[in-house]
Amino acid sequence: MTKNILYLCHRIPYPPNKGDKIRSFNEIKFLSKNNTIDLISLADEPEDLKYAQNLKKYCRQVKVFPLNKKIAKIKGFLSLLSGQSISQGYFYQRKFQNTFNKWTMSEKYDAVICFSSPMAEYIFKPAKGIKDIPENLIMDFCDLDSDKWNQYAQKTKFPLNIIYKKEASRLLQFEKKINKIFNKSIFVSHKEAELFVKYHPGAKDIRILSNGVDYQYFDSEKTKITQSFFSPMLVFSGAMDYYANIDGVTWFAKEILPEIKKKSPEIKFYIAGSNPGPAVKALEKDESIIVTGFVKDIREYYKAADLCIIPLRIARGVQNKVLEAMSMGKAIISTSQAVQGINSEVKQVLEIEDDPQKFARKAVDLLNNKIKRKHLGTAARDFVLQHHNWDKNFAGLYKP
Length: 400
Description:
- The protein is of the alpha/beta class.
- The radius of gyration is 21 Å and the shape is globular.
- Helix 7 (145-155) runs antiparallel to helix 8, helix 10 (243-263) packs across helix 14 (356-367) and helix 13 packs across helix 15.
- It has two domains: 3-209, 3-Layer(aba) Sandwich (Rossmann fold); 220-387, Glycogen Phosphorylase B (Rossmann fold).
- 42% of the residues lie in helices and 16% in strands.
């Protein structure tokens, strides 16, 4: 029997071109096969508003509200001053709340699914009170955001480190409240769930639903290269307005790439991703670094790469960039932090290194060993085929 599900999302899940959007889109796609989905979402990029039409293929109703980042930051700061987390204020909009109230009053929903903890604020502030919200409340935390803010605090200086530390504490309290009231708390990996239980020993109703990858799309055999690339070639992909990615590529460019260039002076390091800020663009002062900005088809960069590198020092959950590169059959060197959410067997199909000097040596060794790169790439694709199927992994998302 078809069920009605209301899905709340902090960022429009289309196009599925960055971590959280990839996961939320695939949840909606999966749920729509046997249920009726209504979606309310925010869009933090004005050009994304037009993609509401694309989501109507999977949803009966779609309502997307623009998120003005400047106003959202002010609201987030005021939220912090009021005793709540920045995140609760940043992502809260009265128009979103009004739509939520209207839909839940006029439609009987069998479940409400929130993607990302700030969406729970709309559950806690309904017009008629929480008793009128469907009893089946599901939160996909994905990653433990409060701990991510702790990591930010450790990497930044005063006064930001103080603000980030406070946000981590406030958000953790909010996450605990969500877990108490919601029927199911979902995390992307066992490590994320274990971390939450460490901070909240009384946690209940926890589920682990790992990410998948569209291995039919991310397939080197089906990908055509339509442009010229330099060789040898290293590739990092990701949204370049995201702090963890900025930190990772900056660290790699300063601490690791110079050592690689001593042995491979012709090397080119491609940073492929949308919205690169001044700190990332400044890396192009090094002629071996190419900052692409938005790319239409990241698969071309993966296929052309001799080696994919994932030098993240701040990371939570499962990194989709790792799964995509593996699905493309590429040899990968990653920090341990970037793969901590993936099955421990992953260490057999890629290189893991945190020390800059050793990272550089492993990169040089792989650049000089085509056979080993081929072997790792084949093993990596086999790994995602076995462990990262969306339909299989999301089977426990919603069961009436």
